[in-house]
Design a protein that fits this description.
The protein has 251 residues and is α/β, with parallel strands linked by helices. The chain folds into two domains: 119 residues, 2-Layer Sandwich (Nucleotidyltransferase, domain 5), CATH 3.30.420.40; 111 residues, ATPase, nucleotide binding domain (Nucleotidyltransferase, domain 5, 2-Layer Sandwich), CATH 3.30.420.40. The longest helix is centred in the C-terminal third of the chain and has 27 residues.
Length: 251
């Protein structure tokens, strides 16, 4: 079903805001089940509604980019693009995306986006982008995202520690993602999944000595146990709102 079109008045207000808020960032969040997009002002505040379409099956690079073209066409007037991607990324190249498709291995995503939309682009791991949208910039802060898979990022005093991947790290007899991703939730059921998640939170605290933990992703709403004071659930919109941070070093 297509998103409900905004009213004429809201469109004019949004357009006027965009014209006075350059540079405008088109923030993209690629997920295993959904593709999201939103326009942001230079401070990371929304300039549009969040649009979403299902992730195509199979989720090949071409299929995903074609679907993103449809979102991009509904959000004109941007100056640059930020993309959060569910996998390992180095210098704009995707190396692995186990919840999408094998063809993402060594795919030059940043170049592909720039060529399609004729705008400068930056890409990063989706949990890293969500972390940028959530962290306070003080001490050691960690974020995990619970969706199709399990995302992870770690920050020290607001600076990302790049290249870390906890979801595929061995834990118990499998990996964190095997137990805490969507497959684990389906296999073990909500009650046992919550117990496993509670154990994982304690394990990560002992491993990383974080000061704050943020939990995002669509399945975060299924948490039933009481969280410690320094752990909180964050909005899925943080996965888009953090997109401006990818441009922070260039102003």
């Amino acid at each position: 079903m297509s998103p409900k079109p905004p009213s004429v008045k809201s469109s004019l207000r949004r357009r006027n805001s965009i014209l006075s808020s350059a540079p405008v960032t088109l923030a993209i969040d690629i997920g295993g089940t959904g593709l999201k997009a939103m326009l942001l002002d230079p401070k990371g505040r929304p300039l549009s509604e969040r649009l979403r379409v299902p992730t195509p099956i199979p989720a090949t690079p071409k299929a995903v980019l074609d679907a993103l073209d449809g979102l991009q066409a509904q959000l004109p007037g941007f100056d640059r693009v930020s993309v959060g991607f569910p996998g390992v990324i180095k210098r704009g190249v995707t190396y692995i995306a186990v919840n999408l498709h094998p063809l993402w291995a060594h795919f030059h995503l940043q170049d592909a986006v720039e060529k399609r939309w004729k705008k400068p682009a930056r890409v990063a791991n989706d949990a890293s982008v969500q972390g940028y949208g959530a962290v306070k910039g003080e001490g050691v802060e960690m974020i995990i995202t619970l969706g199709t898979g399990m995302g992870f990022s770690l920050f020290t005093d607001g600076k990302l520690c790049p290249g870390l991947e906890l979801g595929h790290h061995p834990w118990r007899k499998k990996t964190y993602e095997d137990y805490l991703g969507a497959r684990g939730l389906k296999k073990y059921g909500k009650k046992h999944w919550n117990k496993l998640l509670q154990e994982a939170v304690a394990q990560t605290a002992a491993t990383f000595n974080w000061d704050r933990l943020y939990i995002g992703g669509g399945n975060a709403r299924k948490i039933t146990f009481d969280l410690p004071p320094n752990v909180r659930i964050v909005s899925n919109e943080d996965g888009l709102l953090g997109g401006v941070a990818l441009w922070r070093d260039s102003g």
